[in-house]
Design goal:
Layout: H1 5-13, H2 16-22, E1 24-26, H3 31-39, E2 44-46, H4 51-64, E3 72-75, H5 88-93, H6 97-113, E4 118-119, H7 143-158, E5 171-175, H8 194-210, E6 215-218, E7 222-223, E8 226-227, H9 232-242, E9 248-250, H10 259-262, H11 268-278, E10 283-285, H12 301-317, H13 337-350, E11 352-356, E12 367-371, H14 395-402, E13 407-411, H15 424-431, E14 436-442, H16 463-473, E15 477-482, E16 498-501, H17 509-517, E17 600-602, E18 606-607, E19 611-612, E20 618-626, E21 632-642, E22 653-662, E23 667-674, H18 676-679, E24 681-683, E25 687-689, E26 693-700, E27 707-713
Helix pairs in contact: 1-12, 3-4, 6-7, 6-13, 7-8, 13-17, 14-17, 15-16
The chain binds beta-D-glucopyranose.
Beta-D-glucopyranose binds near residues 120 and 173.
């Protein structure tokens, strides 16, 4: 964003107090308070819930303040505003960047029609601890997937012109490493090496900043002892100086005030001085105004002007100086048919088939029982859905509508969190009267999201008991899991013939689940996070570094697979290898796991050359054939293994993927260009390098079923 003539002229005309006002967004005030705050000079507000109310606030800003500067209107539009898309973790499971872009564009169009100009999304925190409830808001454990989908989301929100009537400014959050709090507890400490910061946590932010994200939100956590809100190295040296980020660094809610309990500021003035000195541009606070003109003396005037210029430049890019109003008659309050169709397709594409013995897709059963807390629940919207009237239907209603000739019984048996298992007997009795049972289980939306960490990741309440009781009947059954995070399913998964993960799918979740159950859509999503066998394995992720004492049994990707590039030198006694005494190695289901209803054969992978120089791109291709009688979708994933490097490399690293639809019998070529970005890593002193030597490229439909080709870098 370049600083224009208008911005310069305003800056020159502003008093110190007017400047200070531009540097604050006040956290969710009432409309009356917001109007008064704007009169007093506040530059940004949270969305006052309608186009008309937003216009009223803009009118106060334009007509009742000396310089008539319009306000930025912020809102957490995380996965839709009126039409709710699947939660971001579910979107990640679709492995489909164009879909993520389309969903963000829909959310932006709805939000901007009501006057919202600034969303606090996407969350691109790489998350490797499923106890942390906010894993639901991001794209999971993988750096590449997070970077690609975060960029797609930014493109979807912002389009090519922020002043367009369907564009809003995106915020990449929470910068940085918020996804790895100690113990998985929200807001907790993060301590991370420069090596991991560069190669894991910073990388998606670098990508979305390069994509043009208009703002970046500072994270609540410390990094190496320094809270990010006061971390000059991260906010200024890396983000602004090194990456050339010209947008706004916004604080998280009360993040500046939180420097007091963090123990690095003696009072609010001290906190404010540290935060703005570190590179913060807008403070999100506080009650009601955290910034006092007296604080100005503590902030370098050039730094103050830089922050104000960034805010004004964004207002200009959004076209607010030319027209800050929206047409209330065009406010999009209800989902359109097209919006519903899009989120329905998205919810289906997000589904992951964990296992299937052929029970799915269902073949029009005559008598079917729906049991479990999700049978009649409408809690499908997921975390971060604010109360703007969005709602979803129930699976029971949807299924009744689709099977008018079947006998559909609905006996939930228990609630999500119930400790009372007495209703399970009724479900079992009903099961005996049916040909097929669907157990609709999971976590309600409130169990994931902000401040929703869990220490036990099994299904809450008595749901596992219900599944085992249904298994005990011998009646064919399938399990659908709705969840905002990976769950521990070890105690029952072997007893279930078919398990589908549907996450929290949004407005059309119930319709999409039924589409998938009956095979109208292919559940070809893949897991964006490892599903652990036990909480004791956490943090768990596939791209772990190689250790000096890898276990030679089990392997770290699945218990069945030893050959995952981890075989030790053979001279270490098995007892002294990196494993647990009481648990098989590897997760229950690895990152990238999933299948679909069709079957595919993969040919031999081919490389355009077996040797490249560090700056060259090599092309990797593979023929894939749909060997089934049905149309289906395959997700081909490419992982790099750097065989010997100057730092211990991860065992595998996703570098490319593509999802495609294939007709029965069709063969198609998946081709991937792999260059510097795929082969290199961040070494010391922020240098990105590609080291000469041997690489293996692993390609296949899941992480654990790949074929390898070798590539030498000269
Ligand atoms: C969250 C942010 C969010 C902000 C504003 C905070 O508590 O951490 O992700 O954008 O609130 O609602």
């Amino acid at each position: 964003m370049s600083t224009t003539h208008r911005v310069h002229a305003l800056l020159a005309a502003m008093t110190p107090a007017e400047k200070l006002g531009q540097l604050q967004i006040v956290f969710r005030p009432s409309s009356t308070d917001a109007a008064q705050l704007i009169r007093e000079g506040i530059g940004s507000v949270f969305w006052p819930r309608s186009a008309a109310a937003t216009n009223a606030l803009q009118r106060v800003a334009v007509e009742e303040t000396r310089l008539g500067i319009p306000v930025l209107v912020g809102l957490d539009v995380i996965h839709g505003q009126r039409t709710i898309a699947p939660v971001p973790l579910a979107q990640a499971a679709a492995f489909d960047p164009p879909l993520v872009r389309e969903l963000a564009a829909l959310a932006a169009a709805e939000a901007r029609s009501g006057g919202v100009t600034w969303t606090f999304s996407p969350m691109v925190d790489v998350s490797r601890d499923p106890r942390w409830g906010r894993v639901v808001e991001g794209f999971g454990e993988d750096v590449h997937l997070t970077a690609v989908l975060g960029s797609a989301m930014v493109r979807g929100y912002q389009g090519t012109d922020l002043s367009a009537p369907d564009a809003i400014a995106a915020t990449a959050k929470h910068y940085v490493a918020y996804g790895q709090p100690e113990g998985g507890r929200d807001y907790n400490t993060v301590d991370v090496s420069e090596h991991r910061l560069r190669n894991v946590y910073l990388e998606p932010f670098r990508a979305v900043v390069a994509e043009g994200a208009a703002s970046v939100m500072a994270a609540f956590n410390t990094v190496a002892g320094r809270p990010v809100h006061a971390n000059r190295h991260l906010l200024t040296e890396v983000l602004k100086d090194e990456w050339g980020f010209a947008g706004i660094v916004v604080g998280d809610a009360d993040g500046v005030r939180n420097l007091l309990p963090h123990g690095v500021a003696e009072d609010l003035a001290h906190a404010v001085a540290q935060a703005f000195g570190a590179g913060l541009d807008v403070e999100m606070g506080g009650a009601p105004r955290d910034l006092d003109p007296a604080d100005l003396e503590r902030i370098d005037p050039a730094r103050l002007d830089d922050a104000v210029a960034r805010v004004l430049a964004l207002k200009e890019a959004l076209g607010l100086f030319d027209d800050p109003y929206v047409d209330p008659a065009r406010e999009r309050i209800e989902p359109t048919d097209a919006a519903r169709a899009l989120v329905r397709r998205a919810a289906a594409r997000s589904c992951v088939l964990l296992k299937n013995d052929g029970t799915l897709p269902l073949r029009a059963p005559a008598r079917i029982l729906l049991t479990g807390p999700y049978a009649e629940s409408t809690d499908h919207l997921g975390a971060w859905t604010q109360s703007f009237g969005a709602h979803a239907g129930s699976i029971a209603d949807e299924l009744r509508g689709r099977l008018p000739d079947a006998e559909v019984s609905v006996v939930p048996g228990l609630g999500f969190l119930d400790d009372d298992a007495s209703g399970i007997a009724d479900a079992v009795a009903a099961a005996h009267e049916c040909d097929l049972v669907l157990v609709l289980a999971g976590e309600p939306s409130a169990l994931s999201g902000e401040a929703a960490s869990r220490s036990d990741l099994r299904l809450p309440g008595r749901q596992e008991q219900l599944i085992r009781a249904i298994a005990g009947t011998g009646i064919p059954f399938g399990v659908v899991l709705e969840t905002g995070r990976p769950l521990v399913v070890a105690d029952w998964i072997d007893e279930a013939p078919a398990v589908l993960v549907a996450w929290h799918g949004g407005t059309e979740a119930a319709t999409a689940i039924v589409d998938v159950l009956f095979g109208d859509e292919d559940p070809a999503g893949r897991l964006p996070m490892s599903w652990p066998r036990s909480v004791g394995q956490i943090p768990i992720h596939y791209a772990h570094e190689r250790t000096g004492r890898p276990a030679s049994t089990g392997g770290t990707l699945t218990t069945e697979t030893a050959d995952v590039g981890l075989d030790g030198p053979g001279n270490v006694h098995e007892k002294y290898t990196s494993k647990y005494l009481d648990l098989g190695l590897g997760p229950q289901f690895a990152f990238g796991h999933g299948s679909g209803y069709a079957t595919f054969a993969h040919g031999e992978p081919r490389l355009s050359g077996s040797e490249v120089s560090p700056d060259e791109t090599v092309s990797l291709s593979i023929d894939v054939t749909n060997t089934s009688a049905r149309r289906g979708e395959e997700v081909v994933q490419v992982y790099v293994e750097d065989v010997v490097a100057s730092i211990a490399p991860p065992v595998r690293r996703l570098v490319a993927f593509e999802r495609r639809t294939l007709d029965p019998g069709e063969t198609t070529v998946f081709a991937f260009g792999l260059g510097r970005e795929a082969l290199g890593f961040w070494a010391a002193d922020a240098a990105f390098i590609v080291e000469p030597g041997l690489f293996r490229l692993h390609v296949g439909p899941t992480l654990t079923s790949t074929q390898a080709v070798e590539l030498r870098v000269r």
